[in-house]
Amino acid sequence: MERADEFARVESADQGGLLTYYRGERGIVRSASNFRVFADMLLERSEPEFSGPGYRASASIAGAGPVVLVNPWNGPLLLESWKVAPALACGNSVVLKPSEWTPLTASMLADVAAEAGLPDGVLNVVQGFGDEVGAALVGDARARRISFTGSVPTARAIAAAAAPNLTPCSFELGGKSPLLVFEDADLEVAVTTAKRQFSNAGQVCLIGSRLLVAESVFDRFVERFAAEMAEFTVGDPRDETTDMGPLIHHEQFARVDGFVQRARRDGARAVFGGGPLRDDGSLYYRPTLLADMEPDAEIVTEEVFGPVLTVQPFVSEEQAIAMANSTRYGLTATVLTGDTARAERVAARLDAGTVWVNCFWVRDLRAPFGGTGDSGVGREGGEWSFDFYSEVKNTVTAS
Q: Is 239 within a domain?
C-alpha cells in the first residue's frame, strides 16, 4: 500500500486500464486486501479431530510443495495476488509466470516481497512467453499444483502437460455470460448495469456480454441504453474523464474487430459502435451493441473479450433460462428482476458458478469463484483456495 500510486500508474500504462480504476477500491487496494484476507483466514484455520471406539484421529494440513501460477494480462496484479496470497499462506513456494503482455507489476510484487522479508526462493517471478517458459513450468514434475487463468485452448494444453505427472490443476477460464432483464426490473438499474459490462474495454472474463431482455421492455431498454452511451468517453486511460481505455494489443484488437465484422456481414445490426474508434493504428475500439443475430451465431456463442455486447429478446421465463444456458460456458450470470420468487427460481436453474441478483461484480474474498463447462475446473477463494494449495493427512491412533 505504501507504493499503491506507483503500482496503479505502472499497471495502467502496462495494461491500458483506467488509472482511476487502479487507484480505486477494486484496483491496488483490492490486491493488497487479498494478502490481508487470506492471512486472517489462515489464523482462523483449525485441524479437525475425530474419535470413536478404540481410536482417535486428527487431520493435519500442510503445503503441497512448489506451485506454478500462470496469469493473464487483463487484471495482472489483482489476479496474481488472488493466487499468490493463498498459495503462500498454505506454506508453499511459488513460481509465478505473468503474461508477456503485462509483466511489470509482477516484478514489482517480487520486489515488495523481498523488501518485506520473504525468504529468497519462496516467491519467484519468471518472465517469458507462454509457449516457451510457461510450457516448461507446467510440464515440470516438481510442480505440485498448477493454477491458470486464461483461455480454454491454453488450459487444455496445460492439462495435457500436467497429466503425465498427475499434477492437480485449477482453471478459471472464459465466459459468455448472460445478463437477464425481466419486465419488472428497474430499467435505470438495468442500463447502468449494462454499461458496466464495458469495464476494462470488455476484457473481463465475468462480464455479462449477452443481454437477454424481456420483449415487453426490449425497445425501451435498447433506446435508453443507446442514449446513455452517447455520453460515454473512450480515450486516454490516464484521463479522469475517460470511461474506457484501449484494447491491450494489436492482436487482440484484430480479434475483436474480426468478430464484429463477421457478425455484421452475417446480418447483425449495430445499435451503436461496430468498429474502431479511429483509423490511425491506435487500439481504441467503439463500445458496441449488436442486435438481430441468429440464436446460434458466432457472436452469441463465442467469447469476444472486448467491448462488444449482444442484445436479444425473450418472451417467457422458460425461454430466458434456455437462452442463458445455451452456450458451453458457465462462469457468471446476472438477473435483474423485482420479483424475489422469480429471482430464486431463475438463479437456481442457471448454469453458472456465480449468479448476481440485482447487483453485479460483488466478490467476497471468502466466497468461491469459478465456472462450469468450458469456464473452468475447480473454485478459488476462501477455503476453496486453501483446499487446493494444501495436502491433508489423516493420522489415526489406537486409544
A: yes
Residues 168 and 224 in one domain: no
Q: According to the model, what pLDDT value does residue 25 have?
A: 82
Burial zone of 55 (CB within 10 Å; 0-12 exposed, 13-18 middle, 19+ buried): exposed
Q: CA 193 to CA 208: how far, in whole Å?
A: 9
> Of all helices (H) and strands (E), which one includes residue 30?
helix 28-44
Query: Dihedral through CA 29, CA 75, CA 143, CA 153, nearest 10?
Result: 160
Q: Which of 30, 17, 125, 22 is nearest to 71 (CA)?
A: 125
pTM of the shown model:
0.94
| Residues 123 and 254 reside in one and the same domain | no
The x, y and z cell numbers of residue 279, run together, are: 483509423
What is the rounded distance in angstroms from the CA atom of residue 57 to the CA atom of residue 308? 55
Q: Is pLDDT of 45 > 90?
A: no
- Asked whether residue 369 is domain-assigned, the answer is no
Q: Which of 11, 80, 172, 380 is catalytic?
A: 172
CATH of the domain at 385: 3.40.605.10
Place of cell 509483466: 103
340 and 194 in a single domain? The answer is yes
Q: Is residue 276 part of a domain?
A: yes
pLDDT tens digits for 64-114? Answer: 999 999 999 999 999 999 999 999 999 999 999 999 999 999 999 999 999
Cβ-proximal residues to 175 (8 Å cutoff; 6+ apart), any chain:
205, 206, 207, 209, 303, 329, 330, 331, 332, 371, 375
Number of domains in the chain: 2
Q: Does the annotation mark 172 as catalytic? A: yes
Residue 364 lies in a domain: no
Residue 363's pLDDT band (cuts 50, 70, 90): confident
**Domain limits at 343?**
178-357
Q: Quick one: pLDDT band at residue 319, thresholds 50, 70, 90? A: very high
